[in-house]
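Why should sequence recovery work at all? Because a backbone constrains its sequence more than one might expect. Tight turns favour small or flexible residues, buried strands favour hydrophobic ones, and helices have their own preferences. The token representation captures these environments compactly. In the example below, the structure is given first.
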């Protein structure tokens, strides 16, 4: 058996060839690639401390060697000719070095490829206001945002500034011009970049994630002053999203925040991923809330209207849909199996009743 430590290069080739999103390399386990949301073990021996130490040395930029030695973590980019570009996080766990690679796409997928409802294109082409894309980690928020940015880039002559951590999709200028800024590499943090963006003559600002009150406040201010702001939140649906934004603020500020949100919000797209019935991967399930007069009133005063979920369910005229309405269509069309649909439904029993009532399932 060779004493030479294992190289990371073959594993990056494996990541690309399997269409995976991430590669995990840690001591004591074989490398694993994430494909369709699941970690799959590569058929190679478990990694040793020498292996991962060698891998870090292969990819770590020279100017970060001292930083990694002192802080035990580093974020950077790595390009491999003929394979692609990767965002890398190197870190130390239990005294040994580990790495996670995220494959960076060049160019966005279009709406048809992603199965996005057409109303999301309408939201992307709004001239101003706030559009939020929400969902748990790994639900495709970044991919949806990239598709929306690409649509704007294709049809509007505007200046787009993105603030991302990390940059996961690279965009080339089309009708628009795009400046992609990466937190820690190009700017200190989201809040600093948002403040600076207001001096960069933007028409569209994309915020990779609204993590704290300062970022939320700056995003609302930008939307209020005539910019289109696209942002993400780790929330499960439209109602949770509104509550999360309001809860960032102190009680005496919340009434004003509700009023500002009701005025500036254009829509909320909440996402989940579900296995396709034919076993070819996963498909998107989306709840879409479009801000209308009634939803705006419900944001300002939740007691004045039915629950947001009911307004969405009744909002077909405005192209709104709940998760369960989308799941109903996916099961009806044979895209998703019944068990998988029920497993992620918001109201599993009600969905099952609807499907049975329509004669779609027994």
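From this structural description, the recovered sequence reads:
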């Amino acid at each position: 058996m060779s004493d030479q430590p294992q190289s990371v290069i073959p594993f990056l080739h494996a990541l690309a060839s399997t269409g995976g999103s991430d590669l995990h390399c840690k001591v004591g386990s074989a490398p694993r690639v994430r494909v369709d949301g699941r970690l799959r073990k590569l058929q190679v021996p478990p990694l040793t401390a020498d292996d991962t130490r060698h891998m870090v040395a292969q990819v770590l930029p020279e100017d970060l060697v001292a930083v990694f030695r002192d802080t035990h973590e580093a974020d950077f980019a790595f390009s491999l000719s003929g394979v692609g570009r990767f965002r890398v996080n190197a870190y130390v766990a239990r005294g040994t070095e580990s790495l996670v690679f995220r494959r960076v796409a060049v160019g966005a997928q279009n709406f048809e490829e992603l199965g996005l409802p057409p109303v999301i294109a309408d939201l992307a082409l709004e001239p101003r206001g706030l559009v939020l894309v929400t969902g748990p980690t790994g639900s495709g928020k970044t991919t949806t945002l990239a598709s929306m940015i690409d649509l704007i880039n294709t049809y509007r002559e505007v200046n787009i500034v993105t603030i991302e951590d990390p940059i996961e999709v690279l965009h080339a200028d089309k009708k628009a011009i795009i400046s992609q800024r990466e937190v820690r590499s190009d700017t200190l943090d989201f809040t600093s970049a948002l403040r600076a963006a207001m001096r960069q003559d933007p028409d569209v600002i994309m915020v990779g994630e609204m993590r704290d009150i300062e970022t939320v406040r700056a995003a609302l201010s930008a939307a209020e002053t005539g910019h289109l702001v696209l942002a993400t939140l780790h929330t499960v649906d439209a109602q949770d999203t509104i509550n999360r934004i309001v809860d960032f603020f102190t009680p005496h500020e919340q009434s004003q925040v509700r009023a500002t949100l009701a005025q500036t919000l254009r829509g909320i797209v909440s996402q989940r991923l579900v296995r396709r019935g034919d076993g070819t991967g996963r498909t998107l399930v989306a709840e879409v809330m479009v801000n209308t007069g009634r939803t705006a009133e419900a944001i300002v005063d939740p007691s004045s209207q039915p629950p947001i979920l009911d307004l969405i369910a009744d909002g077909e005229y405005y192209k709104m849909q709940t998760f369960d309405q989308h799941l109903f269509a996916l099961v009806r069309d044979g895209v998703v199996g019944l068990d998988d649909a029920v497993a992620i439904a918001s109201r599993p029993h009600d969905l099952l009743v609807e499907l049975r009532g329509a004669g779609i399932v027994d």
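A few observations help interpret the result. The chain has 15 helices and 14 strands.
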